[in-house]
Specification:
InterPro entries: Acyl_CoA_acyltransferase, Bact_Acetyltransf, GNAT_dom. Keywords: Acyltransferase, Transferase. It comes from Microbacterium thalli. This is GNAT family N-acetyltransferase. Pfam families: Acetyltransf_1 (PF00583). It is a single chain. By secondary structure, the chain is of the alpha+beta class. It has a single domain, classed as Aminopeptidase (3-Layer(aba) Sandwich). Helix content is 32%, strand content 29%. The chain has a 7-stranded mixed β-sheet, with helices on both faces. The chain starts with 7 loop residues before the first strand and ends with a strand. 26% of the residues are buried.
Length: 164
């Protein structure tokens, strides 16, 4: 099957089934990347990490998906995290990588944060995601210390910020 090389970004509700499917795909990818990364840790710490990573609908500023035709190709969320804006859950489906979708989603996410009043955005990623680290660095993000809610459960996170 030939993939559609044209794509567009749409804003969708947080509970949009296409967006939910993209988040499940990201969870599967991250599960594979980080399998064994946290070692033999107590169940309570795993639950605490899941709580730290959870995104709740009431925090959402924007849920964006990239579509190639009618096929979901990428996804990102902008959420309020206390008094900050955080970019979460960026994913591009493997078949659609290399088309600039991640950059397009990031540009749209930054616009959404700016439109909501943000002067700065933050994000968290990890060492097992070198392509994400490279993308964020290339977009002008700079490393910052690990921030809450990740300090206790993911102290080896790689965190970034960018002024708008």
């Amino acid at each position: 099957m030939e993939r559609d090389l044209t794509w567009r970004i749409e804003s969708v509700p947080y509970n949009d089934e296409r967006a939910r499917a993209m988040r499940r795909e990201l969870d599967a990818d991250l599960g594979a990347r980080y399998d064994g990364f946290h070692g033999d840790e107590p169940e309570e710490r795993r639950r605490a990490r899941a709580r730290a990573l959870a995104t709740h609908a009431e925090q959402i500023v924007a849920t964006l998906i990239a579509l190639a035709g009618d096929t979901p190709a990428g996804h990102v969320i902008v959420r309020r995290l206390g008094d900050q804006w955080e970019i979460k859950r960026l994913v591009v489906v493997t078949a659609f990588r290399g088309l600039g979708i991640a950059r397009g989603l990031m540009a749209a996410a930054l616009d959404a944060a700016r439109d909501d009043g943000a002067r700065r955005v933050i994000l968290q990623t990890g060492l097992q995601q070198p392509e994400s680290i490279a993308l964020y660095s290339s977009l002008g993000f700079t490393r910052i210390p690990v921030y809450e809610p990740y300090v206790e459960t993911m102290p080896r996170s790689v965190c970034f910020a960018r002024d708008l």
